[in-house]
Amino acid sequence: MPFADIVKRNRSYRRFDQSREVPMAALEELAGLARYCASGMNQQPLCYALVADREKNAEIFPALGWAGYLKDWPGPAEGERPAAYVVMMTAGKSGPWTRADVGIAAQTILLGAAELGLGGCMIGTVNREAVARVLDLPEDCEIQLVLALGVPAETVVVEDQEPGGDCKYWRDDKSVHHVPKLRTADVVLRRFPSGS
């Protein structure tokens, strides 16, 4: 699949076919991809907890916030919840570039998931103490982000956002998730073609 298609397929999915498991081998493959990512000063501060266990998933789920713009939606219903999680952490070592490292690694994992036919969502609203307790994490582990993964069970549509228009995502009456994105012409501020 061309890279551009993988990028376009990689949306923030929040509803999944919970009956379709994500194999641990797939999670290990995705974490393995992240180790190849650039890292500020090559400090490699990230480590991961990979969770594909139904009971652990059920304990993690209530510790996550799901969609800030969908005020009346409490998150995916039973049967539409993630089949797996990748909990991204630092273990006693972080620095000024850690946030960039987290973003690079998270996007790489989600692009890899899209290539495998999975979907996911980066979740930053996390009750970190609760998740650390569920996973029995060492005290020096600091949760940075949780990636929810599974086989998508929703349609996500990207639409052009007018400059100055509303960036809030929304759902229509058929539960299609709409995401406004600025056009390329609106984000490229200057152009200096060769020979200019």
Write structural notes for this entry.
By secondary structure, the protein is of the alpha+beta class. It has six helices and seven strands. The chain has a four-stranded antiparallel β-sheet, with helices on both faces. It has a three-stranded mixed β-sheet with strand order 5-7-6. Helix 2 crosses helix 4. The mean pLDDT is 94.
Summarize the structure.
It is built from 6 helices and 7 strands.
Give descriptors for this structure.
7 strands, alpha+beta, globular, about 200 residues, three-stranded mixed sheet, 6 helices, four-stranded antiparallel sheet
Topology:
Elements: H1 3-9, H2 24-34, E1 46-51, H3 54-60, E2 84-91, H4 98-115, E3 119-123, H5 128-135, E4 141-150, E5 156-161, E6 170-171, E7 177-182, H6 184-187
Parallel strand pairs: 5-7
Antiparallel strand pairs: 1-2, 2-4, 3-4, 6-7
Helix pairs in contact: 2-4
Structural class comes to alpha+beta
**Number of separate strands:** 7
| Spatial shape | globular
Tell me roughly what share of residues is in helical segments: 25-40%
> What proportion of the residues form beta strands (DSSP E)?
15-25%
Distance between the termini: 35 Å
Mean pLDDT: 94
Give the helices and strands as they follow along the chain: HHEHEHEHEEEEH
Largest sheet: 4 strands, antiparallel
Spatially, the strands of the biggest sheet line up as: 1-2-4-3
The stretches of 5 or more residues where confidence is low (pLDDT under 50) are: none
Rg calc:
18 Å
Number of helices: 6
